[in-house]
Write a structure and sequence with these properties.
Blueprint: H1 10-19, H2 35-43, E1 55-58, H3 63-75, E2 84-87, H4 92-111, E3 119-123, H5 128-139, E4 143-148, H6 153-166, E5 171-174, H7 178-186, E6 190-193, H8 204-207, E7 215-218, E8 235-238, E9 245-247, H9 249-269, E10 275-276, H10 278-288
Parallel strand pairs: 1-2, 2-10, 3-4, 3-6, 4-5, 6-7, 7-9
Antiparallel strand pairs: 8-9
Helix pairs in contact: 1-9, 4-5, 4-9, 4-10, 9-10
Domain Methylene-tetrahydromethanopterin dehydrogenase N-terminal: 10-90
Organism: Mesorhizobium alhagi CCNWXJ12-2
Protein name: Methylene-tetrahydromethanopterin dehydrogenase
């Protein structure tokens, strides 16, 4: 397990062990420049037909850095010497995949529509989960708006990075006032809260009059809820003060857990080396979302 941080997440260590890995070895304070040598040390330590018995996990809290580390790990392979690689910085890939998959399923079941051409506003979009959620939803054809609680500067940079890295378009929006937030909510079919734990970004006042709104989802399990009135266990249940349905963090978290565990198990069970990023996480999340 490679992380640029000073500590590896105990969550990811436990997930890997519970999935069936015999040993998990964290490497901390890993720079992008360290990745190639570490990966090549790993690939040359076993004969080519045993490379599948080693997996590299990319952690951290910076999506862009983690994706760069993921790419560096893949480029470090010297066929036939290869190992498997899985990236999930701060659980953001699997969490975002789970949230979008649950929203997609709610749209299908409750409103007989998909994500394509659906107006999706992401609050807390400057974080790792918000970034990944924006990319996944945009790739599925949604009309994605990423909302900056402190103005446009940071979300404009994120929108530009998403365009450059993934060639999908997302729109930045200023959510620095209650009036601006309310206008964004009223113009959306789906609102997603990906803000930090314990931070409420959407209140009932913001939801009032949002007649267009179909689904609200929140990944924050620490009170107060990211979306006021949205219960932690909500699973496409009515959302207070609206005609929409809500998806709470426990419903999303249940899928996230299955996805991360499932990808670790796929690494273990694979006959050939595999690589997993957020798109693979989303494909698996769709299988678990109900």
């Amino acid at each position: 397990m490679l992380t640029p941080l000073k500590q590896m997440s105990p969550f990811d260590v436990n997930m890997a062990l519970d999935a069936g890995f015999d040993a998990v070895v964290p490497y901390v304070d890993v720079s992008l420049g360290d990745v190639t040598s570490l990966v090549q040390d790993a690939i040359f330590s076993r004969p080519p037909d045993a490379g599948v018995n080693t997996g590299i996990f990319i952690a951290g809290r910076d999506v862009s850095l983690s994706l760069d580390m993921f790419d560096a790990a893949k480029k470090a392979m010297v066929p036939p010497f290869q190992v498997s690689v899985f990236a999930d910085p701060a659980g953001s890939f699997t969490t975002a995949a789970a949230m979008v998959a649950k929203v997609e399923k709610a749209l299908e079941n409750k409103f007989q529509r998909g994500l394509k051409d659906t107006a999706v506003a992401i609050f807390g979009a400057t974080g790792v989960v918000g970034f990944c959620t924006a990319v996944i939803a945009a790739r599925e054809g949604a009309d994605v708006t990423i909302v900056g609680h402190d103005g446009l500067a940071r979300v404009e940079k994120i929108a530009a990075e998403i365009k450059n890295r993934f060639d999908v378009q997302v729109k930045p929006a200023d959510g620095s006032s209650d009036a601006r937030k309310k206008a964004i909510v009223q113009a959306s079919d789906v609102v997603l809260s990906a803000a930090k734990a314990g931070v409420q970004v959407i209140s009932k006042a913001h939801l009032e009059g949002a007649d267009r709104l179909l689904v609200g989802a929140d990944v924050n399990a620490v009170p107060p809820a990211g979306i006021e009135g949205l219960a932690v266990h909500a699973n496409a249940n009515p959302l207070e003060a609206t005609k929409a349905v809500g998806i709470g963090p426990l419903a999303i978290g249940n899928v996230k857990y299955k996805v991360e565990s499932g990808l670790f198990k796929k690494m273990i069970e694979a006959d050939k080396t595999v690589t997993f990023d957020f798109q693979d996480a989303f494909s698996l999340a769709r299988e678990f979302a109900k």
